[in-house]
Amino acid sequence: MTSTRATLLQVAERAGVSLASTSRALHGTGASRAMVERVRAAAAELGYSADAIGRSLRMKKTFQIAFAVADIGNPVYVEMMRGIHEVLAPHGYRVVVMTTGDTAASAAELVRSLNSGFVDGMVVIPLRTDDELIAEIQRAPVPVVVIGRALSEHGVSSVSTDSAAGIGQAVRHVLDRGRRRIGFLNGPLDTTPGASRQRGFDAAIGAEGVHTERVETEIAGDFTVAEGIVAARRLFDRASGQAPRLDAVVAANDLLAIGAIRAARELGLSVPGDVAVTGMDDTELGRVFLPSLTSVSLGSAARGRAAAELMLGLTDDPDQQARQIAVGPELIVRESTTDGAA
Amino acid sequence: MTSTRATLLQVAERAGVSLASTSRALHGTGASRAMVERVRAAAAELGYSADAIGRSLRMKKTFQIAFAVADIGNPVYVEMMRGIHEVLAPHGYRVVVMTTGDTAASAAELVRSLNSGFVDGMVVIPLRTDDELIAEIQRAPVPVVVIGRALSEHGVSSVSTDSAAGIGQAVRHVLDRGRRRIGFLNGPLDTTPGASRQRGFDAAIGAEGVHTERVETEIAGDFTVAEGIVAARRLFDRASGQAPRLDAVVAANDLLAIGAIRAARELGLSVPGDVAVTGMDDTELGRVFLPSLTSVSLGSAARGRAAAELMLGLTDDPDQQARQIAVGPELIVRESTTDGAA
DNA sequence: AGTCGGACTGGAAACGTTTCCAATCCGGGT
DNA sequence: ACCCGGATTGGAAACGTTTCCAGTCCGACT
Predict the structure, then answer these.
(1) What is the arithmetic mean of pLDDT over B70-83?
(2) Closest CA in chain B for residue A290
(3) Which is it for strands B294-297 and B330-332: parallel, antiparallel or unpaired?
(4) What average pLDDT does this structure show over B197-201?
(5) Which of B174, B196, B184, B270 is nearest to B220 (CA)?
(6) Do B116 and A262 touch (CB under 8 A)?
(7) Name one GO molecular function term (chains A, B) (predicted).
(8) Domains of chain B as residue ranges with CATH
(9) Taking a C-beta distance cutoff of 8 angstroms, is the pair A140, A116 a contact?
């Protein structure tokens, strides 16, 4: 019952050999069979286990990767974290979670904190991106991988997904099902996802050969169910007095979509009978909801895994060229746009 | 554009003062006004920021706390992590996430890994607990706080909740609403939550003055929606041929509850009309579900915060007496047990 | 038998920080 | 003018590990 942990030096003394040999014997290279055995025995007797800090100091490697998001607790981020952890853990890396806050400046500060060297790299999902943040990423002392916008022009490694194209898939899907009066429920336009999804919607509606009777866009205060309900009410209200009621709502994420469904129910509208609803992100929430939610999967776990793979490559060779990986969106059709009749 | 980060020694040379004074000036105690200014200036010019590893080695403190759960990704754990992070971050602690795997042995191994000293403490949520795990916790070189079972008798700090009492609240609630044919949908009995919730259910049903017409228990293979659906089908099937159909299902967590609702819908049963359903954990999933889910809140975020507070106390004084905190369960009534008629 | 080379070992330095201890400085009281 | 003490300062050690370098040993080849 030693109150203090055994050190390598103590193992060395116990085994009656030098510190250097002890290290070699335990770490594994260039030690004789006999030496290894002898040292192992001594280490076992003392219950030795190597100190991570001492090792880190000497090796200049912490075996830790930071994962920074605006809000741990958001299901999408959680799934990414799971993906990241899944890839990194088998390689001996620990994952440190951090929160960026929701401004680009606070994210930049977090990136700057990498200077203290507590981690070998960082995977970050900035809600908003500006030049300062990009500059900070470029001058970071360890590899940084961005999940979100593709940043090839800045020489930053990133994992992106074409959420604009994803919204396009959703729009075409509801058009295919004969809907012509379409509402788009988006989140704040000054966020990265908000901006690109708006772009995707406008492009899809404006595309060659698309015929609609009515198109409305409404912006929610945030990407949450609560804000989704409020904004969806406005959307339906706006559409009410006038002639044709909306028969489809394309939402910028699953939470907003669920908000839309709840608002529709309040008005006595059935989903998908009166109004079809699509979400985005393919969260568990949407999967188990009633009706289950048609949603555009952006491959959260896949993006997390991809980011982790990129990171592993960069930690091996920090000077390698920045790479971009794109994960394709995929429409998952479920009950909220299809029930009974085709 | 120095390719390598500045070290304290470089700052000292630049300022033309000793290493010791430089450290004091930046860290803050026992340095003259002039010295502080001089060193600060030099540090700023070099873009110096202290190396976390060097500091950790010397101070024997990592400013990191581990959070270990079976499965990051489970909404309940995520909320706890958020609570933990919320309390710890302002004190300068980082949170390292780790997965225990679902056996007691693998959790024990994780606790043993604390010997490498990469972290100042650990908050762990063991799915299963055995003597080895407890022993490992007791001999850990840093404070360990357990969320789950109260472990006062072993001198282990823990944050617990009386989920048995919580199930009791749910049972009484459905009884109050006139339901008499009650099914209990539980998860595996060899898990900590499974065991105590079963105990709570049995106690509530067996309590003085409780009148029921029918009581059934069904065990799902896991605490998931998918397993919940399967087990709920068995529950309803079992009840079918015979006379009175179940009019309430008490589920051991929200995921199982949602599984029960889906299974009920398959059979054409309305919720809460034909069958009332309660969950446990008060997850966002349940909050936004349709119908919104009556659920027993075990205060996930609150337990996370409490565990973090305990941890802060222990890192200040590792030898202080182990403490136990209990967070009371609270029934949150929503649509799945009440709609229209009282 | 003498030399060469490979395999192994030990000494010592280095990673970047904080802090103990001794030394220096300065002003004020005698 | 001298000494005392508080306030600052610098030197050096220490935290625990890995790894460079030089040295030792031993078998094998000429």
Answers:
(1) 88
(2) B290
(3) antiparallel
(4) 97
(5) B184
(6) no
(7) DNA-binding transcription factor activity
(8) 8-50 (no CATH), 64-162+300-328 (3.40.50.2300), 163-298+331-337 (3.40.50.2300)
(9) no
Q: How confident is the model over A180-226, as pLDDT tens digits?
A: 999 999 999 998 899 999 999 999 999 999 999 999 999 999 999 99
Is the CB of residue B74 less than 8 Å from the CB of residue B100?
no
CA distance A333 to chain B (A): 18
Q: From CA A275, how far away is CA A269, in angstroms rounded?
A: 7
Contacts of B96 in chain A (CB under 8 A): 64, 94-97
CA A62 – CA B189 distance, rounded (Å):
40
Chain B residues whose beta carbon lies within 8 Å of the beta carbon of residue A76: none
CA of A62 and C1' of D21: distance in angstroms? 27
User: To which H or E segment does residue B316 belong?
Assistant: helix B300-316
Contacts of B99 in chain A (CB under 8 A): 85, 89
| pLDDT at res. A150 | 77
Rounded-to-integer distance, Cα B53 and Cα B72, Å: 27
**In the numeric block, which tokens belong to residue A317?**
């060779």
pLDDT tens for A67-88 read 999 988 888 899 899 999 999 9
Residue ranges of alpha helices (H) inside A177-318 are 192-206, 225-240, 254-266, 284-288, 300-316
Judged by CB atoms closer than 8 Å, whether chains meet at B116 and A50 is answered as yes
The DSSP output letter for B47 is T
Assigned token pair, B146: 């357990």
Spatial distance between the Cα atoms of B269 and B307, rounded to a whole number of angstroms: 41
pLDDT band at A340; cut points 50, 70, 90: low
Angle between helices A225-240 and A254-266 (to 10 degrees): 50
Q: Residue type at B136?
A: E
Contact B236, B267 (CB under 8 A): yes
Query: In angstroms, how far is D2 C1' from B21 CA?
Result: 31
State the nearest Cα–Cα gap between A83 and chain B, in angstroms. 10
Q: Which two tokens stand for residue A209?
A: 């050969």
Cα–chain center distance at A119: 19
By C-alpha distance, the chain B residue nearest A8 is: B116
Q: Tokens 């900035």: give the residue.
A: A126
Give me the amino acid identity at B226. A
Peptide bond into A291 cis (omega under 30): yes
Burial B6-16 (b: 16+ CB within 10 A, else e): bebebbbebbe
